[in-house]
Write a structure and sequence with these properties.
alpha+beta, Immunoglobulin-like, 3-stranded antiparallel β-sheet, 1 helix, 28% strand
Length: 158
């Protein structure tokens, strides 16, 4: 069977909606429309997935003698939070597991994410690592970081 050239007109080119399409043309249109719908669904799913894996939201506040970092960690347990501090950086790692581990579970929709999330930030000032403290209450982590106080030493002139 030889391929034939077929002129396909769009609505802008004068094709009326009432004209009937050949079965092949209809089938092709259905396939293209299905692919477009699936592309949109995939794009939304990927967007939702990447948004759910965003870094945890944090507020950083500074006073004269300390830096306070408040981070939301919904669904995370205290024992699954790890904090690492240097003089000028703060790293927060939170792990959360899937509560339902039955492989036979038939999800209709699954939006909650599981795994590990990490937040690293450069601090606006150097902090005293040994005096740092943290508390975890109602899924909110608060880290208090006392600043290193510059020691001023007066030098006597001979």
């Amino acid at each position: 069977m030889a391929d034939k050239d077929v002129d396909i007109k769009t609505e802008d080119e004068g094709m009326e909606e009432t004209e009937k399409k050949s079965p092949t043309e209809s089938m092709l249109n259905d396939i293209v429309n299905t692919i477009r719908e699936k592309q949109e669904d995939l794009g939304k799913t990927l967007s939702d997935y990447t948004m759910s894996l965003q870094k945890p939201l944090s507020d950083i506040m500074e006073s004269d003698d300390a830096i306070t970092v408040v981070t939301d960690l919904p669904g995370v347990k205290k024992e699954d939070v790890e904090i690492n501090i240097t003089e000028d950086t703060l790293d927060i790692v939170a792990k959360f597991d899937d509560e339902i581990t039955d492989e036979g579970t038939n999800y209709i929709k699954k939006e909650r994410s599981y795994g590990e999330t990490r937040r690293s930030m450069v601090l606006p000032d150097k902090v005293d690592v040994k005096r740092a403290s943290a508390k975890f209450e109602d899924s909110v982590l608060t880290v208090e970081l006392p600043k290193i106080q510059e020691e001023k030493h007066k030098v006597d002139i001979d």
